[in-house]
Amino acid sequence: MKPAFDSAPWVADHGDAAGLPTPLHEARLAAITHALLASGARSVLDLGCGEGVLMAKLAAQAQFGRIVGIDISVAALHAARDALRLDPLAPAGRVQVVHASFTDVDPQLRGFDAAVMLETIEHVDPGRLSLVERAVFGCYRPRTVLITTPNQEYNVVHGMNPGAFRHPDHRFEWDRPKFRRWACGVAARHAYAVAFHDIGECHPTRGASTQMASFTLDADSMA
């Protein structure tokens, strides 16, 4: 049974009541942007782009010559187009949003230097994560993949009830050992190296609120 949603005010940590990013989400955006800049990526695929908040951050960086976001929510894509000032009738330009699912293989999404899954895998049923793995790591194979997800161990620090999830659409929330086991398995199966990072204030025993895996394709596998 899926744990109940905890209604504490902080739980909607992507944005406050006015729609403005919270400090935690700002920290995630900054960490992702920094990692992408450091990777040298020039093209970025935002898997589950939502309303385009990360894409707007990336569009402000001249390094990124191509930024494409995909999402299954038509409403979110409309909001992203408005936020990014994209004309749906204009030819595809530097920034583009596409209606698609990151659980489906789409050969047109190959060829990107980097892919990001920002607070998205926890919205996928665990039994379908193999489809995400197949699409992202098996088919698209970007040189860099960045994945962030809630750290379940930290929920108690936020004052949440035991077993509660941070959002009603979350299908799971993993502790650090489970996330690392999953990520290491993905990396081993697809010839990536993986490193882990904390995002947000760190608790001495429970880590940080957000955990990030940074995957790098082994040089010998980039052909």
Provide structural commentary:
A seven-stranded mixed β-sheet has the order 3-2-1-4-5-7-6, sandwiched between helices. The protein is of the alpha/beta class. It is built from five helices and seven strands; from the N terminus they run αβαβαββαβαββ. Strand 2 (66-71), helix 3 (74-84) and strand 3 form a beta-alpha-beta unit.
Query: Major sheet, described briefly?
Result: 7 strands, mixed
CA gyration radius, whole angstroms: 17 Å
What is the total tally of β strands? 7
Strand content: 15-25%
Low-confidence spans: pLDDT under 50, at least 5 residues? none
End-to-end distance: 44 Å
The SSE order reads HEHEHEEHEHEE
The coarse overall form would be globular
Overall pLDDT score: 90
The largest sheet has its strands arranged as 3-2-1-4-5-7-6
Number of helices: 5
The proportion of residues forming helix, as a percent range, comes to 25-40%
Helix/strand class:
alpha/beta
Helices and strands in order, then pairings?
Blueprint: H1 23-39, E1 43-47, H2 53-59, E2 66-71, H3 74-84, E3 95-99, E4 114-118, H4 129-140, E5 144-150, H5 176-190, E6 192-199, E7 210-217
Parallel strand pairs: 1-2, 1-4, 2-3, 4-5
Antiparallel strand pairs: 5-7, 6-7
Features:
223 residues; seven-stranded mixed beta sheet; single chain; alpha/beta
Quick gist of this model?
This protein has 223 residues and is α/β, with parallel strands linked by helices.
